[in-house]
Amino acid sequence: MKFTRSKLDGAFIIDLDQFNDERGFVAYAWSAQEFIKLGLSAKLDEIIVSYSLRKGTLRGMHYQNDPFAQAKLVRCTQGAIYDVAIDLRVQSPTYKKWEAVELTAQNHRMFYIPEGCAHGFQTLEDQTEVFYQMSNVYAPDHANGVRWNDPAFGVEWPEDELTIIDRDRNYPDFRE
Fold first, then answer.
1. Residue 63 among the catalytic residues
2. What is the CATH number of the domain that holds 86?
3. For a tag on the chain, would you pick the N or C end, based on fewer CB atoms within 10 A?
């Protein structure tokens, strides 16, 4: 795996180090040892698969409060997404900044998002599937979110037409 630091503190864009031959390729998509070497969470409690029927589907921006904060490792296994993280860690040098990475089934790229960041994505193709690993279990009483278009962050989304649920559409304005 090739880890590239993102513009968000503690977030990484990860490309597979592929071993190619006439059959295709094989690559490590997970190595606890590699994550630990970089000081990243190697804890793996849940794996989630998300499937979206239509291009423009927006899911997010979600996070969990302590003690159930989650680091996430996100990969698109079918279709394509515009994957976004917003740094909500008050002590972070990148507090309230955001980063977006295009993840596709073809580029095999992953995005590591540390605890304390909100996460969401918008599908760029119909019939898109996303596979993500979580460092902590889902805890509904600790689940939270910020609005996808909150001016406090200024995230620039690629698609104008949205399919979004009311919960994600109606998070209140961000307050420090």
1. no
2. 2.60.120.10
3. C
